[in-house]
Amino acid sequence: MIVSLLVLAGGAVGAVFRYIIDGYVKATAGKSFPWGTLTVNVLGSALLGAFHGAGTGTNLEALLGTGLCGALTTFSTFELDTVHLIQDGEYGRAAINALGGLLLGAAAFVAFYQLLH
């Protein structure tokens, strides 16, 4: 039961952070490319890599990894953004978003994992 409550608490914070960060990035960078989604996904991947690399343990992993990072990042919005770019005929941007999001997220995870491992 405690692990579920930790995931809930971390998720509440992560969702609010995602809303704030995504809104700020969209207001700053504009909406012609899904920079907000890319930012939260790469940030969440970096944080998850750091938490996992530091060996946080079950309870902290639930709070920070599953909860915080799980709610901060958004695969479904990443997919939706890519589909919208395709529907708008922005095939190059869609490819950059899809490949860039996956590669940058993986690189951020590995870099921060290695940094703290």
How would you describe this protein?
This protein has five helices and no strands. It has helices at 2-29, 35-53, 58-72, 75-87, 91-116. It is 86% helix and 0% strand. The protein is an all-alpha fold. It has one domain (2-116). Keywords: Cell membrane, Ion channel, Ion transport, Membrane, Metal-binding, Sodium, Transmembrane, Transmembrane helix, Transport. Belongs to the fluoride channel Fluc/FEX (TC 1.A.43) family. Fluoride-specific ion channel. Important for reducing fluoride concentration in the cell, thus reducing its toxicity.
What is this entry, summarized?
The protein has helices at residues 2-29, 35-53, 58-72, 75-87, 91-116. The protein has 117 residues and is mainly alpha-helical. It is globular and about 45 Å long.
List keywords for this structure.
mainly alpha; 5 helices; 0% strand; globular
Spans of at least 5 consecutive residues whose pLDDT stays below 50 are none
Quickly give the structural class. Answer: mainly alpha
Shape: globular
Number of structurally distinct domains? 1
Residue fraction in strands:
under 5%
**Rg, please?**
15 Å
Largest sheet: none
How much helical structure, as a percent, in the residues?
A: over 70%
| Element string (H = helix, E = strand) | HHHHH
Mean pLDDT: 97
Number of helices: 5
Distance between the termini: 29 Å
Number of strands: 0
